[in-house]
Structures are given as C-alpha cells and as structure tokens.
Amino acid sequence: MVTVWRNALRAGVVLAGLTGAVLTLAAPAQAAFATEMSGLPARFTAGDQVRTISAVVSQTDRRGGCAKVRWSMVLTVRGIRLDQVKMDRVEENGDFPLEVRTEGDVARLTDRQLDPGTLCPGRTVTARYRVAFAEDVTQGRITLAAEAYDANLRLLARQTATRSVVGVGATPTATPSATPTLSEPTSEPEEAASTPVDEPVADQPVDAAPPAAGRPVSQAGGFGLVHAAFLLGGLLLSLGVGLLLRLRHLTRAAATEAEEPPVDRLWERPTTTGRWRPARR
Q: Could you give the percent of the chain with pLDDT greater than 90?
C-alpha cells in the first residue's frame, strides 16, 4: 500500500510540474510587446490635407532579446471607397516599399522588407504613415489597425483606432467632451482604446495574415496560445485527480479484502479435535 501511494504522489507532482511549465512558457509570449498609435486627429478632413500618423511597438519584457520588426497596416472603410483613400509608408530616406492587398472595403499594406530599426528592451521601433482623402468624400469612417510582426511573421502586438472622415465643406458635428483632441497627446491612447469599432478589422478576410507567409494568430480573436495552455493544464489536472481517486479506491478495496475472511468459509463448521469413540449398544 505504501508503494501505491508513493507512485500516486509522484504522478501528481509530475502533472503539476508539466502544467506550471506550459503556463510559464505561454504567458510571456502574450504580454511581452505593446503597440501604440499617435498623431491621430479627432477626425480626418478630405481634400489636400495630409496627416502623418505613427505606430510604435515596445518590448515590455526586460528579459527578452532583440528582434526585427515588419509592419502591416489594415484599413477598413465605411461610407467611402478604398480608391478615395491614399496612404504611404515613409522613412527618413523617403517612401518605404509596401505590398497592398484589397478585398471589399478592407485593405492591408505590409512592408516588403523589415523595418530598419531593431526592437530591444528599452528601445522602440516606429512606423510612419501619410494619410489623405479625395476631395469628393462627403462623410464616412475609417478604422486603422497597426500590427507589428517579427521576422518569422509572428504577431507581436496590435493597436486599432476608428475615426470619422468629413468633407471640406461639411459642418463638423458636436464632439463629445470626453473625446481628447490633438492638443492632448498624453490621452490619445485612451481615445483609441475607448472609441467603438464599428466593424472589427479582425473579422475581415484580408486581416487574417500578412501576404508574405502563413496565418499568424491575431490578438483580436482566435484560439491563442494561453487558451491552449490552460486547456492542456486543466486536462492534465483532471487526469491526475482521476488517477489519485482510482488508486485510493483500489487501496481501500485491498484493505477490506485483507481484513474480512472469504465468503465461502463463513458457513464452515469448526472441526472437533476430540477422539472418535465407538457407539455403545
């Protein structure tokens, strides 16, 4: 019985160790990077006005190493057409080559080469885009999703923001007092996070992956690595608990059989050890 309990204890320790290792390896991959967008106005104005927006990715895990970054920007328009939107990726030495894919009202602009910068702990990588709208735009909305990938096309971080687009002669509607303006750069990330997205970019087919390789996991949906790790951990724990209960049942049954005599011996009469005597007549 002691041997059985020792084996059960070892099995439980092994299962707990495997669960902890899976969760430890999976958690940093989800929380090691962050992306922010800056330079976004309260609304875009159509015409010759060109806006420059920036996407910045940072590494929050100080224990990680350095990595190269490939940017991909996803546009989703409503009330306007894609041919009424012009967007370029720029660097210090001029335009940056892009590969463009469109499907319906969604367009993806992916860098053809890696960003010149290197992402390291304490060092960020920035991508700049110039955005303009045609003069015939009257009113609509645009959703921008900046995605940062590593050299192996693994999604590092993603940030989404939605803005309205008005024509040159359109009268601007009243803006809620809680919406920050361009003069408050410190509150722009909160605006981007709190603005409702009418049509999530992750639901569009073009947003599934950059065109250069397979389909990486998106943070906005899908079955992530953390979900799989927790599912595997729960399965291992269930197996461990079931094994312990089974071993406990077997040990109790063995102890009960050892204490009680067999059923076929309960009705046997005790044999007399006296000497046999002949009957008297």
A: 41
